[in-house]
Amino acid sequence: MTIEETHGGQSSAVELSTTTEPENTSSCCWASTNKAPDKEPIIANPPSKDVAGTTLTKVQQSKLIDEPKDEDSKKLKHKHNDNRLPCRERYEQMCEEMKTLNEYKQARLVRRFVQSLAAQEQAELPIEIENDLLWILMRSMLREVDETGSKSTSYELSEEAIQTLYAVATTQPAFEKQNKHRALDIAAQLNGDGFIDGAKNNWKSMSPTARIEALTTIANRTAHQFGLPNVELVPYEEKKRRSKVVGQFSQDKILINTRGDLMDDFREVFNTVVHEVCHAYQAQLVEKSMADGMTSSHPDFQQVFAFWLNWQVYMPASRQSSEHRQYRMQPLEAYAWSTADIIVEAALAGNK
After folding, report:
1. Are 297 and 48 spatial neighbours (Cβ–Cβ below 8 Å)?
2. In degrees to the nearest 10, what's the CA dihedral of 336, 339, 345, 347?
3. What are the sequence ranges of the domains in the chain?
4. Do residues 244 and 11 make contact, with C-beta atoms less than 8 angstroms apart?
5. Of 287, 291, 275, 295, nearest to 338 (Cα)?
6. Angle formed at CA 278 by CA 246 and CA 194, multiple of 5 degrees
7. Is the torsion defined by CA of 82, 55, 133, 157 positive or negative?
8. Angle 139-19-322 (CA atoms, 0-180°, nearest 5)?
């Protein structure tokens, strides 16, 4: 799974991946498997609705895929796809019916429920319902990739449903409000001694080494404000002119593309570094929440769970405008883009 950040351009990564083990130095995730886990992956407990799930053989799986018009599907068509009913009522009916179904039929119901949502309903879908739907789809997808990596038709349909949900993903309101205040505080701290002002004014004349040193200082100061240790900043040069990737986050490292044309704009590079630190913070937040046994009663549970789900099924950037919007709107990226923008704009405004 690759996180390729671009500010002012678009990356060429196009595949939606459920791989959670870092494949190379550009991977952003910290958990591990692209096959069915031995037990259900989870933070502390399942999302808000308790749904039943059983494991099927490959023959049973293919039978479910090849016979789409079973009795459960007919019930769904009549009850859960009825746009005359309010969204939440259809959702609750679906959850009630899923209690007697295995996880593959649950995923099918969820896919059709997502397809039934009108644009306004999608936009107003509460984060806890989004998480429930994503959880069911993701859990099914992890079992629909065989040992060779081949993906079933059902996998691809679930992938499309997840893309739809990512395109309208929301942030938990209380978390968003708290985060905005923290972002402004971070900007004020970066402003403290005029360091940002100096870096901005002298950027054009700075040597490549001096630029990396300045960006490392920015990365570490930002990381400290997030409660993180120093973040290693690793410079590299991407020779391909088509590449617009400025930076990437990999575990505890930030990779910065030092190719001249990508390093000239201080604002863009500053934004990229802060953006990648935001990904480091997300990884720490999820990992700590798991270690602490966060439960659904915690006020930040739904947002942390949304980040965790997104680690499992992450959509890289794409050249396609519609897919790029979905990439920008998925929880991990929506948070990193908006938070970095707040910090950078406030920091630069304070140093004019």
Report:
1. no
2. -110
3. 58-166, 173-349
4. yes
5. 275
6. 80
7. negative
8. 85
Q: What is the pLDDT of residues 249-301, one digit of tens each?
A: 776 788 888 877 778 899 999 999 999 999 999 999 999 999 999 988 899 99
Q: pTM of the prediction?
A: 0.74
- Note whether 73 and 157 are within 8 A (CB): no
**Residue in the structure block whose two tokens are 């403290």:** 192
Nearest residue to 161 via CA among 107, 200, 125, 210: 107
**Backbone region of residue 229 per phi and psi (left: phi > 0; alpha: psi in -120 to 50; beta: other values):** beta
**HEC sequence for 65-127:** HHCCCCHHHHHHHHHCCCCCCCHHHHHHHHHHHHCCCCHHHHHHHHHHHHHHCCHHHHHCCCH
Residues 6+ away with beta carbon under 8 Å from 293: 44
| Inter-residue contact 111 to 158 (CB < 8 Å) | yes
> Are the beta carbons of 258 and 235 closer than 8 angstroms?
yes
State the alpha helices, DSSP H only, in the chain.
58-66, 71-79, 87-98, 103-116, 119-123, 127-141, 153-166, 173-191, 195-202, 208-225, 260-263, 266-291, 301-312, 321-329, 331-349
Q: What is the pLDDT of residues 109-147, one digit of tens each?
A: 999 999 988 888 888 888 999 999 999 998 888 777 765
Quote the Cα angle for 51-326-174, to 5°. 65
Identify whether the C-beta of residue 18 lies closer than 8 Å to the C-beta of residue 141.
yes
Give me the count of residues in the chain. 352
Helix axis angle, 103-116 relative to 153-166, nearest 10°? 40
Report the chain's C-alpha Rg in angstroms.
22
Burial of 197 (0-12, 13-18, 19+ CB in 10 A): middle
